[in-house]
């Protein structure tokens, strides 16, 4: 893992509030959230169901719009863009990883990873080349021609991570990426996600499993739409000297 | 933690002298439980007394090598084939602290839970970082042993975080139901949790 993250801020939330509904049925899903995620940093979000952590992820990726406050993605404030500009920024800057992998069954691993680049307007041959590079980075170059149903869950999730960070994308938003995996496979996937972030990306991870959140540099806890506490900035190697193990 | 059975297990591999035993023990348990030579010698003496281990030979430097007796091998076999008994729980500072906190005047249990969860999560992250330092594949026997020990500490820390989440929810529900969490403070003022609970009851009721 990298030392203390000091890279540029890839994602910044300032005073983000999201209210669903109105009147008596009004629900405040987020209430004044501030959060920065830097290049080289993986941040975990934990909280009970209904705490607002999924809304946080949706707002961070521009899939949902805050009622007030600002979201700045790769240097651009989302609310300052028109819908087309926002969609373009979202598509080119952010990748998603979901619990159930969400690969297209009729496409091979390489085709799945190349697809976002082809939608970016990159030529097929270039997109394929980038897809193969992205698959190598997650350690499954040899599975490029397999279809999703010919791969294990862990392998499919590696493809999803490769797809999320293919080409210029530097922010991965992961929603319970280990939810459908057994404990050892889940750990392998976290190791890959961690390595990709260390190699030059930023990640925001929603999970309800402390063991997987522990792969992040820091964890923020959300309750009733508010960040109640966090593990703070990641310390240097000195934190291990006082731990009493090895 | 059983040094006694640990030494028997090591001697089943090969005869060893006391220094070797200490070294091997630490190697093969990931160095998490360092032994001092006094512990090793005392344990060896007892094992010899109980006829589970016997001196085999003495080298040029007068260092004794020990080996396993038949009885020792049987004792070790019994250890491998029976479960470790989980007896009465050890006295745990955190559970005692929280148990006392819910009935202590002027103490905010939620703050204790949040502070502790942050600390336990930090410890969990540091343990995970140690695990991340292991190679992704091609493990040695020592790597595997170390990873198992780390996993034990990781799962224990995770269980504590989950338990703290549960405590938080439990306390929130108790407060919602108007259960008074703390007795009246000595000064006569109500602690915040009780004040909130009483106001809630006075407001007329259940949410």
TrEMBL record, chain A:
Keyword line: ATP-binding, Nucleotide-binding, Transport
Q: Which Pfam families match?
A: ABC_tran
Protein's name according to its UniProt entry: Macrolide ABC transporter ATP-binding protein
One example of the protein's molecular function in GO is: transmembrane transporter activity
- CDD domains recorded: ABC_MJ0796_LolCDE_FtsE
Which InterPro entries does the entry link to?
A: AAA+_ATPase, ABC_transporter-like_ATP-bd, ABC_transporter-like_CS, ABC_transpr_LolD-like, MacB-like_ATP-bd, P-loop_NTPase
Show where the ABC transporter domain sits.
Answer: 11-243
- Which PROSITE patterns does the UniProt entry name for this protein? ABC_TRANSPORTER_1, ABC_TRANSPORTER_2
Cellular component terms (Gene Ontology) = membrane protein complex; plasma membrane
Where does the UniProt annotation place the signal sequence? none
UniProtKB/TrEMBL annotation, chain B:
Location of the Transcription regulator PadR N-terminal domain: 7-77
The Transcription regulator PadR C-terminal domain sits at 91-170
Show the InterPro entries listed in the entry: Tscrpt_reg_PadR_C, Tscrpt_reg_PadR_N, WH-like_DNA-bd_sf, WH_DNA-bd_sf
Q: Which domain of life does the UniProt lineage start with?
A: Bacteria
Pfam families in alphabetical order: PadR (PF03551), Vir_act_alpha_C (PF10400)
Q: What is this protein called?
A: Transcriptional regulator
Q: What organism is the protein native to?
A: Cellulomonas persica
Source taxonomy lineage? Bacteria, Bacillati, Actinomycetota, Actinomycetes, Micrococcales
